[in-house]
Known about the structure:
The chain is α+β, with helices and mostly antiparallel strands. The protein has helices spanning 6-16, 27-43, 61-67, 70-80, and strands spanning 18-21, 84-94, 102-105, 113-114, 119-124, 135-137, 149-151, 161-163, 173-174, 182-185, 191-193, 202-211, 215-216, 227-230. The relative contact order is 0.24.
Amino acid sequence: MVITDVDRTLQDYDRDGYTIFRNVLDRDLISEASDHVAWLQARHPDRLGEDLATELVAGDPFWVRLVSDERLLDIAELFVGPDIALFASHYISKPPFSGMPVLWHQDGAYWPLEPMRVVTLWLAVDESTPENGCVRVIPGSHKEDLHALRQRDDIDNVLGSESAVTVDESQAADLVLAPGDVEVHHPNILHASNANTSPRRRCGLTIRYIPTSTRITSEQQPFVSALLLRGAPGVNVYQPFPTYVEGEHMPFAGADKWA
Length: 259
């Protein structure tokens, strides 16, 4: 993938709080990512598809191979600079005719980062449409401060909480993505997704990249999914890259390079 018209892309991001890159990853790698979700669910049958998350990442060679793909890092570099670390990553896989909604929230309200310099790449593993619960954003809301959170136990939802603010959903933009597309968004943008009412799964992988000058303030160091992916290490302590063990990890193209 060649990133074109960088100035316009950054202008769109500065104005709206998000932007989209099309056809970032090839079909074969996306197919492996889809297989990875099925493998994870078989390995962790106690977890819902929306709960394949952070603490699983650093010990999984394919997951680390995926988030360290140079095409993704080249995009991340546009927003956080050349020294890049992974903070967290999370598959959200909504089964057909079900799958919980994600209520309106700002990512930064949940994260132990100082300063809040971070960017999310949302990688489409499946086609993502309004019918199967695509991401929805309020363009321009990234210019707001981080709102307080309130618990929401009255409805099943992925986060169990939402931003304590009234959202005008008539202003929302639906982010329709094809497999291999990447949507990039700001930690302050209000975003959500509905339940999946279609016969098609909707799966995406969130990848949270930070510049290595952003400090992870969690008391757990190294943080469970913190990985140095490009450049100088900066202020954090990182997990080691995992070693591929046949029979223990999902096989994938190039796994021998991780052995």
